[in-house]
Amino acid sequence: MDISKRYRIELNKISNHLADLERGHTYELTKTSGTPSCATLAQHLKEDIVALLNLIQNDKQVYPKKMLCVLPM
Predict the structure, then answer these.
(1) pLDDT tens for each residue of 24-63
(2) Contact call for residues 7 and 52 (beta carbons, < 8 A)
(3) What is the DSSP string of 11-65?
(4) N or C: which end of the chain has fewer CB atoms below 10 A?
(5) 32-37 contacts, C-beta under 8 A, 24 or more apart
(6) Which of 37, 51, 45 shows the shortest CA–CA distance to 14?
(7) Can you say whether the dihedral through the CA atoms of 62, 8, 60, 40 is positive or negative?
(8) Closest of 13, 16, 6, 12 to residue 63, by C-alpha
(9) CA 44 to chain centre
(10) How far apart are CA 61 and CA 57, in angstroms?
(11) Residue 16: how many other CB atoms lie within 10 Å
């Protein structure tokens, strides 16, 4: 299985954090309650990358392979 498909959930989380940064969707710019700060997004990125690398290194997935067939893309 293609690694990008196998870990698409984890990669999507990272992509969403990056998209927030690209769009300027941060508290520092919007001053909107509930919007993450740049520091929070950076921390989420660090945690998500470490978690993804751990999954890859240990050849694991968050969801069993059977469930991936029914998850929406």
Answers:
(1) 999 999 999 999 999 999 999 999 999 999 999 998 766 5
(2) yes
(3) HHHHHHHHHHHHHT-SHHHH--TTPPPHHHHHHHHHHHHHHHHHHHHTT--SS-H
(4) C
(5) none
(6) 45
(7) negative
(8) 6
(9) 8
(10) 11
(11) 13
